[in-house]
Amino acid sequence: MTYYGHYQHSTFGTALADSLDELVTRSEIPPHVAKAIMGHFDHALPKAFGASVKNKVTFKGKMKTFKLVDNVWSFYLRDVTFKIDGKEIQLHGGQITACDQKTAATS
Questions:
Q1: Strand ranges in 1-107 using DSSP code E only, listed in sequence order
Q2: Strand, helix or coil at 73?
Q3: What gap in Å lies between CA 63 and CA 92, rounded to an integer?
Q4: Among 9, 53, 62, 73, which is disulfide-ready with 98 (CB 3.0 to 4.6 Å)?
Q5: Which neighbouring-strand residues pair with 67?
Q6: Would you state the pLDDT for residue 3?
Q7: Is residue 52 predicted with pLDDT exceeding 60?
């Protein structure tokens, strides 16, 4: 299965990377262990989200642009409204990144 690593740029991923960098800098773990942990993170987070996140999100906005690179879609939106669990969030701009699960599973 292909894992894209999008989550490494999330708040969780950035915090984990910062913590691991600090541990490597203090020589508490070797760099190869930090790299292995980030690799496990790439595998574990999508599985955890798939198993436990059941919320439905809808959105409406004006598409500024989009692109498809290596089976990863990126949609850049403006004046977008997200609806999550009955709550509405309005933003001037936003980005949605999506990966084809079937393609990832066969890679």
A1: 57-69, 72-84, 87-99
A2: strand
A3: 12
A4: 73
A5: 74
A6: 59
A7: yes
Cα–Cα distances in Å, from 22 out to 18, 31, 64? 6, 11, 39
Buried b (16+ CB within 10 A) or exposed e, 21-31: eebbeeeeeee
User: How far apart are alpha carbons 6 and 36 in whole angstroms?
Assistant: 16
Report the share of the chain in percent with pLDDT over 70: 88
pLDDT band at 27 (very low <50, low <70, confident <90, very high): very high
Residue 6, token pair as written in the block: 């999008």
- With cut-offs at 50, 70 and 90, classify the pLDDT of residue 107: very low
Question: How far, in Å, CA of 59 to CA of 96, rounded?
Answer: 10
- Answer yes or no: are the C-beta atoms of 105 and 68 closer than 8 Å: no
Taken in order of first residue, the domains within the chain and their CATH numbers are 6-52 (1.10.287), 57-106 (2.30.18.10)
Tokens of residue 4, six digits:
């894209």
Amino acid identity of 1? M
> Which of helix, strand or coil describes residue 81?
strand
